[in-house]
Design goal:
CATH class of the largest domain: Alpha Beta
Shape: elongated
Number of helices: 26
CATH topology of the largest domain: Rossmann fold
Strand order of the largest sheet: 12-9-13-14-16-15
Largest sheet: 6 strands, parallel
CATH superfamily of the largest domain: Thiamin diphosphate (ThDP)-binding fold, Pyr/PP domains
CATH architecture of the largest domain: 3-Layer(aba) Sandwich
Helix content: 25-40%
Number of domains: 3
């Protein structure tokens, strides 16, 4: 292909255009990609390449990078022709140097990092920082301008792109999907997006499936399938794919340009029709299947083995360059093949005729406001008094604790109907999780029409314009929400507790993103990722062992304290206060755990606010603090609890102790915010030493009923004085389909187990203790016999209500 450096960029049709300038721009991006992987000095090869110019440790991924840069350059062309707002999502995020190179060429990188200027010294800093201590990571991440997606863990690109497009009507999200990523389960599920993207109110997602044929060490499935097969796969999911393939730039450039022009025209036609005529079904959104060689323009062979077009180009095609003169010579020839002297001027600045190819201002993909959290507006929360549960008599009112939250979310939907910026994401469990009040305001979103009139009549709140996102995939629900909040909107992901572990790795990756994004001043805070876990391990009355698993709590507790928050509201009013806080918060992963079944209600709304403000407090009304054996210097035992079922059992244990051992001084402490338990140097919510002692004393034993695995609470208490005095009972993998009380019995968290532990750990001996111990043993035996005969809990358990004595 003729590389005429004086060629003129025009807005003619692709077949009439001269792509010489665009080809040179692509060459500049490829050159800077290679330079970042290999060089620490001599960034433009102004002198012969020597071993000391090479980094001592070579890291990075070359194989996918030429494809990413090719697409980026062509999207620049499209933006300049149309002024479209395009968000770039790099599924092969391990191709980090390519995206950094392109944001540098368009000028965004130097704007957010002035030290990496558009000159020779800036280029030196650019190459030195890549994959080096104190520099930048090898993956696309928070530090990369324009990115909302870290592609290190493959599978989430298309769902992030889909979430970003929701309620963002002018946005086009160009999502590059590698054929390695296309083998993952989450990405396979993501192809369903056309069934949920509504062109009336949403933006568009443009998938670009880049098939270069290979993963890190072997071929890919789709890379080996025919174009017809791959196209059929996308067509079956509702896309309208076009294929661009080749290894000759003279063929690929006009073909890719034409495909993007056609895709843009199709997107705007779909949106225009929907916004004038309405929506009657899913649209056939365009998609592009791009086949180019892996490691294109790199070394064809190394040491006699093929590299370009094979898995050997995946990472660093030429290793040992410092020690191997032949490799050093081959590297220099490779880099000079891009003719850097024809790309950058004497000062190291990209030549003007090439810089002109990039969009300007906020239309540059590295500067797109949506990618930085700009324009995000706070979410107004209705007055919680409209949903608060009356709690008189205290503990005597039974209510489904999540139901008032559904009513609050309903009104948020109503309040944001004209300015949509909130969505609920739930895998087919909205009603099951008692959040069904939202359907009074909106429907489930599905653009697929029913096959028959009878089927349509049987639908329950299903429509194309619905804004409750239900799909039976935790990956999709969470991934859509992540893309939604990272571009400035608000939402909630509600899941059965056990199955939130399906997307636990996504939670980890999102927390890592937020942790590092917080350190970047140019990134604006974004709404938090809010996860509600319900249908919990303690109340799976009709489900089996598979539905019992509080492991996401452990996962989240292990993440950075700067971004994670874990809440155990004990009743409906504390849940409302928690939801109000988390939906207005920024840059957190908020995990909220509460059951959906009927539970006793304890705190008024005002008390709930006070309790939430401190995170843990003494419930004087539940305990029985007397002079005891300590002479009034503190309780004989502390009963702690976190979680709704553990709270109920703890209150029942305190009730029994007060009734049968009235001389024992018993304190009840409820923990709503788990992060108050570690020391303040471990988590910002951690109580000071004095406050912690006010709750739990300095030396009294604590019997703690904990919602999840006991090891998680022991982890939190590390660093507190005398943590061995905390005797934690939690879920320990016991139980299946059984009665509610049998679940706590099997896991030894029942009121009777707590009482026996309290009597064993309390200071001193008390009249009535032996009688109460015998009562506990007798009741446990009676419980076991009764449920097997009558299939329900004992009446004294079912009908127990906390009462003051």
């Amino acid at each position: 292909m003729n590389l005429d450096k004086n060629a003129t960029y025009t807005d003619r049709k692709p077949e009439q255009e001269n792509f010489d300038l665009l080809h040179r721009y692509w060459s500049a991006a490829n050159y800077l990609t290679v330079a970042q992987i290999y060089l620490q000095e001599n960034p433009l090869l102004r002198e012969p390449l020597q071993a000391q110019h090479i980094k001592p440790r070579l890291l990075g991924h070359w194989g996918t990078s030429p494809g990413l840069s090719l697409i980026y350059a062509h999207l620049n062309r499209l933006i300049r022709r149309t002024s479209a707002e395009v968000l770039f999502v790099a599924g092969p995020g391990h191709g980090g140097p390519a995206v950094v190179a392109n944001t540098y060429l368009e000028g965004c990188y130097s704007e957010v990092y002035p030290a990496v200027g558009k000159n020779l010294e800036g280029l030196r800093r650019l190459v030195r920082q890549f994959s080096t201590p104190g520099g930048v990571a090898s993956h696309v991440g928070p530090a990369t301008p324009g990115s909302i997606h870290e592609g290190g863990e493959l599978g989430y690109s298309l769902m992030h792109a889909t979430g970003a497009a929701m309620d963002n009507p002018d946005l086009i999200v160009a999502c590059v999907i590698g054929d390695g990523e296309a083998e993952t389960g989450p990405l396979e599920g993501s192809w369903k997006a056309p069934s949920f993207i509504n062109p009336l109110r949403d933006g568009a997602v443009l998938p670009i499936l880049h098939l270069n044929g290979h993963k890190i060490s072997g071929p890919t499935v789709l890379g080996r399938r025919t174009n017809k097969d791959v196209a059929s796969l996308l067509q079956a999911h509702g896309w309208d794919p076009v294929i661009v393939a080749g290894d000759d730039p003279a063929v690929v450039h006009p073909a890719l340009a034409s495909a993007l022009d056609s895709a843009y025209a199709s997107i705007r036609a779909i949106q225009s029709h929907a916004r004038t005529e309405g929506v009657t079904g899913p649209s056939r959104w365009p998609a592009i299947i791009l086949r180019t060689p892996k490691g294109w323009t790199g070394p064809v062979t190394v040491d006699g083995k093929p590299v370009e077009g094979t898995h050997r180009s995946h990472q660093v095609p030429l290793a040992g360059v410092r020690e191997n003169p032949g490799h050093l010579q081959q590297l220099e020839a490779w880099m000079r093949s891009y003719h850097p002297e024809e790309l950058f001027d004497a000062d190291g600045c990209l030549l003007a005729e090439l810089a002109h190819l990039a969009p300007t201002g906020d239309l540059r993909m590295g500067a797109l406001p949506a990618s930085r959290g700009k324009g995000s507006r706070n979410l107004a929360i209705p007055d919680l008094g409209r949903y608060a549960i009356k709690t008189v008599p205290r503990g005597g009112v039974m209510h489904e604790s999540t139901k008032p939250l559904g009513e609050m979310l309903r009104d948020i939907y109503i309040d944001t109907a004209r300015d949509p910026r909130f969505r609920l994401f739930c895998p087919d469990e909205t009603n099951s999780n008692r959040l069904g009040a939202v359907f009074e305001a909106t429907d489930r979103c599905l653009l697929e029409p029913a096959a028959t009139r009878e089927a349509a009549l049987a639908d329950d709140h299903v429509s194309a314009n619905g804004r409750v996102m239900e799909v039976l995939s935790e990956h999709l629900c969470q991934g859509w929400l992540e893309g939604y909040v990272l571009t400035g909107r608000h939402g909630l992901f509600a899941s059965y507790e056990a199955f939130a572990m399906v997307s636990a790795s996504m939670t980890i990756q999102h927390a890592k993103w937020l942790q590092h994004a917080r350190d970047l001043e140019w990134r604006q805070p974004v709404p938090s990722l809010n996860i509600l876990l319900t249908s919990t391990c303690w109340r799976n009355d009709h489900n089996g062992f598979s539905h019992q698993g509080p492991g996401l709590i452990d996962t989240v507790l292990s993440l950075s304290s700067t971004v994670i928050r874990v809440y155990f509201p004990p009743d409906a009013n504390t849940l409302l206060v928690t939801a109000e806080h988390m939906l207005q918060s920024k840059d957190y992963v908020n995990l909220v755990v509460i059951d959906k079944q009927e539970h006793p209600q304890y705190l008024t709304l005002e008390e709930a606010r006070e309790h939430a403000a401190v995170g843990a407090s003494i419930w004087d009304w539940a305990g029985h603090e007397t002079s005891g054996t300590s002479g009034g210097k503190g309780p004989d035992i502390v009963l702690g609890c976190a979680g709704d079922v553990p709270t109920q059992e703890t209150l029942a244990a305190a009730w029994l102790l007060r009734r049968y051992v009235p001389e024992m001084s018993v304190r009840v402490v409820n923990v709503m915010d788990a992060m108050v338990l570690p020391p303040p140097e471990t988590h910002p919510h951690g109580l000071s030493g004095g406050k912690f002692e006010e709750l739990f004393t300095s030396d009294t034993d604590v019997v703690m009923a904990w919602h999840g695995y006991a090891r998680a609470l022991h982890q939190l208490l590390h660093g507190r004085p005398h943590p061995e005095r905390f005797h934690v009972r939690g879920y320990n993998e016991q139980g299946t389909t059984t009665t509610p009380f049998d679940m706590v019995v099997l896991n030894k968290v029942s009121r009777y187990h707590l009482v026996m532990e309290a009597l064993r750990r309390a200071r001193g001996q008390f009249e009535g203790s032996e009688h109460l111990l015998e009562l506990c043993r007798t009741q446990l035996d009676a419980h076991s016999r009764y449920i097997r005969k009558y299939f329900e809990d004992l009446p004294e358990i079912r009908d127990w209500v906390w009462t003051p004595q």
